[in-house]
Design brief:
Keywords: Oxidoreductase
Pfam family, one: F420_oxidored
Number of helices: 9
Protein name: NADPH-dependent F420 reductase
InterPro entries: NAD(P)-bd_dom_sf, NpdG, P5C_Rdtase_cat_N, STEAP_metalloreductase
CATH superfamily: NAD(P)-binding Rossmann-like Domain
Strand content: 15-25%
Radius of gyration: 18 Å
Strand order of the largest sheet: 3-2-1-4-5-8-9-10
Helix content: 25-40%
GO molecular function: coenzyme F420 binding; cupric reductase (NADH) activity; ferric-chelate reductase (NADPH) activity; NADP binding; oxidoreductase activity, acting on NAD(P)H
Amino acid sequence: MTSSASASASSSPAPRKDPWDLPDVSGLTVGVLGGTGDQGRGLAYRLARAGQRVVIGSRAAERAEQAAHELGQGVEGAENAECARRSDVVIVAVPWDGHARTLEALREELRGKLVVDCVNPLGFDKKGAYAIRPEEGSAAQQAEALLPESRVTAAFHHLSAVLLSDPAVEKIDTDVMVLGEDREDCAVVQALAGRIPGMRGVFSGRLRNAHQVESLVANLVSVNRRYKVHAGIRLTDL
């Protein structure tokens, strides 16, 4: 090993020996792109209720500000670019058909940011929901390709927008599968998930494995429709 390689290796952060040893994320500002949609609003509400500073974004600042006012909990609203600039971590919760267009427009504002993609590429027909496989492999991999200077992870796919937004629900008993290339970035996302009562963030592999995680939502849609519930995911033996 060359001396330069040795220096590079020694300067890298040591991996966490305890997988449940997660960082303190209470001081981070979380932006939610698509924060006026059902999933985005629900995530913004839960994180803010847990004490996180949250900014929701929309293409129109006025719409974001109105949604933030309705949510309360100290949530702020801003136009998408301003939301991205003001945030340490940015959750992408936009509709699939606007995913690429939104990220392309925000490439500069998202440079160097930790981006959490929770978009599920789904189609619907008379047989119900079905998974779409993007050319890049998944929504998260599309985000990775469009944002080469951002740190892209994937998480929060399997959460019920109804439960997230219901103030009468104190706990949401579910696991959040977190995927990404950097374990420390994934640990931050796991810690954010863990701030919501009942939730647990679980590292679930690299972004190349995101397609099946995103696709599983089609199965959950079928479960929910058949049994009239808001099912989530719980991993056993952890």
